[in-house]
Amino acid sequence: FCLWWVGLGIASSVGLGTGLHTFVLYLGPHIAKVTMATNACNYVPEPLPSRWTLNHFKQCAEFSGVPTVPISEIYKAVLLEAFLWGFGTAIGELPPYFVARAASLAGKKHEELEEIFDEEKMSTAKDLPFMDKMKLLFYKTLKKNAFLAVTLCASIPNPLFDLAGLTCGHYLVPFGVFFGATFIGKSIVKVSIQ
After folding, report:
1. d(Cα 193, Cα 71) in Å, to the nearest integer?
2. Is 11 helix (H, G, I), strand (E, B) or coil?
3. Distance in angstroms (rounded) separating the CA atoms of residues 186 and 168
4. Is the CB of residue 122 less than 8 Å from the CB of residue 189?
5. CB within 8 A of 46, min separation 6: which ones?
6. pTM for the whole thing?
């Protein structure tokens, strides 16, 4: 059960080689299934044979009317699966970090990162494109508070999060800071939003 959801999270971060997101294929439908069963019964029904090998839900008495189950009950019913999936997505973000860190420690310069984060060049340029402004803002925030910058980037659905991993690895942000912020952003904040 745990390996399934963590593995799906890892596969989602690496994109299954195509950019395909396992939230859309697995976690989202699971949440929808629990929500529909809860609305049909007006309570969270028992998963059969168990939560760990869910095939279907225990039949409930016919309910007609407006469901009154608070969203917090549904949230609690899917929290473990969502947390494990988010933990997997945090693990899946590690390869770009380690590759950039190894290159930086070997003394190699990443030309694209150096050009993007050349503060003098960027700060003197007048009409910067929006993405360059965002990259510069991220870099400045990263220099002041890496944990906050990475947590914020990881807390939103962000297809450019690999850039955060590359940047943190390149500038030798400690592993604990990068992974801790990624873990909190992805497995706690982002999955709660989703």
Report:
1. 13
2. helix
3. 16
4. no
5. 57, 58
6. 0.81
For residues 104 and 114, the answer to whether their CB atoms sit within 8 Å is no
Which residue type is seen at 53? T
- Residue carrying structure tokens 């860190």: 101
Residue 51, pLDDT score: 81
What are the structure tokens assigned to 184, written together? 């909190």
Report the alpha-carbon distance of residue 167 to residue 103 in Å, rounded. Answer: 12
User: Measuring CA to CA, how many Å separate 127 from each of 108, 124, 141?
Assistant: 30, 10, 21
pLDDT for 26-56, tens place per residue?
888 999 999 988 888 888 888 888 788 877 8
- DSSP secondary structure letter of residue 160: T
Burial per residue of 116-129, b for 16 or more beta-carbon CB atoms within 10 angstroms, e otherwise? bbeeeebeeeeeee
Q: Which of 16, 156, 26 is nearest to 84 (CA)?
A: 26
Contacts 24+ apart (CB under 8 A), 24-28: 26/85, 27/81, 27/82, 27/85, 27/194, 28/194
Side-chain-facing half-sphere of 159: CA atoms under 13 Å: 5
d(CA 65, CA 57): 20
